[in-house]
Amino acid sequence: xxxxxxxxxxxxxxxxxxxxxxxxxxxxxxxxxxxxxxxxxxxxxxxxxxxxxxxxxxxxxxxxxxxxxxxxxxxxxxxxxxxxxxx
Length: 87
What we know:
With about 90 residues, the protein is mostly beta strands. Helices cover about 10% and strands about 50% of the residues.
């Protein structure tokens, strides 16, 4: 099978053998913050936001999801140890 891009695809910056980013994560709200054993746990809601390409292919985002991030204090400020999002 041979695949070729249309002029519209080429103009949009799409290249073959390159993943297309259909959506990005967006923070919806922070619902809880608490200290735990030298760290801070931040409970939050996030959602997928379609990119221009995602909209073009008809991507529909799911409802917001919940996650808990673990942050630790470092010399340069707070550092995210775990964003709590399953990949």
